[in-house]
Amino acid sequence: MIDPRLRTLRVFDECGTVSGTAELTGLSPSAVSAQLREL
């Protein structure tokens, strides 16, 4: 099973923005930022 933070990072890499990543993953922008910070 892939770490959810790595999935978020992959989507962020493809999308390029926190808000776009949040939309695609169903997370809030602050949750996306927190996951990226943890990495």
From TrEMBL:
GO molecular function: DNA-binding transcription factor activity
Span of domain HTH lysR-type: 1-39
Pfam families on file: HTH_1
Superkingdom of this protein's organism: Bacteria
InterPro entries reported in the protein's UniProt record: LysR_HTH_N, WH-like_DNA-bd_sf
Gene3D superfamilies membership: Winged helix-like DNA-binding domain superfamily/Winged helix DNA-binding domain (1.10.10.10)
UniProt protein name: LysR family transcriptional regulator
Species for this entry: Candidatus Agrococcus pullicola
Classification of source organism: Bacteria, Bacillati, Actinomycetota, Actinomycetes, Micrococcales
